[in-house]
Design goal:
Length: 107
Amino acid sequence: MDSTTQTLYFHPAYLDAVRSGRKTTTVRFRDPVEPGPVRMVFESDDEVVLSGAVTGTTSRAVAELTDADAVADGFRDLAELQDRLRFHYPDIAPTDEVTVVHFRLTD
């Protein structure tokens, strides 16, 4: 990959969902992402890197996220997505703006 390829870091718990296609988005807070090539790095002792492409981004407030956003992100429902957002971003508030990042694997 060339120097224009951005990197997205993921918790290793999301690896299977990304590989299987159950997770096709990620919600990011204060983490700028642009459409284009991406290295998806799943951080653990056995770090895994997948090649992909960011196909689009949408910004909205946390309170505007929907069940459809949650399912695309690999979760059962909006409550589970909000719980995980609070886990990853403990200070996140309903009025904070997040970016829904749409991606696909290119491997």
